[in-house]
Specification:
This protein is 12% helix and 54% strand. It is mostly beta strands and 146 residues long. Strands 1-3-4-5-6-9-10-11 form an eight-stranded antiparallel beta barrel. Strand 1 and strand 2 form a beta hairpin. The chain is globular, with a radius of gyration of 18 Å.
Amino acid sequence: MKRFFLLVFFAFFMLMDTGCAYRRNFYTNGNTIYSPLERCRASDILNGESFVYDDVTITNGTAPNEFIINGFGGFDKLSVNITAHITGKNTFIVPFQTQANCKLSVEGQENTTGTLNRKNHKITLPYKVIFADNTVELCTLELTRQ
């Protein structure tokens, strides 16, 4: 009986540690720096125009599967902080969220997820920004870990 209990405890511990809940430890160690490169398309910009802005940091969110991209976007010199939720080993989503400090909303593009490439230390996020005048830009942000 004692051996059975130890086996069940070990199996439970391994499940908790390895896979049932996706954790953010690859995305952030609490304050990880990434260099951004953003490509956007909309009626008011050239299709595929690239934007580079100051480095961003990724910090821990409140839940174990949540992280925050701090300094996201170069929206007229204002940057915002967005929350992302890890959905798989190498995927995450950005739910709809409003940024009051610069009157815009951000969310992941429909039917897409953000991805993590562990080999080259890059995070890619297809997203949509909706400005106060209802102008929409579709963008892809690529973050390279420093």
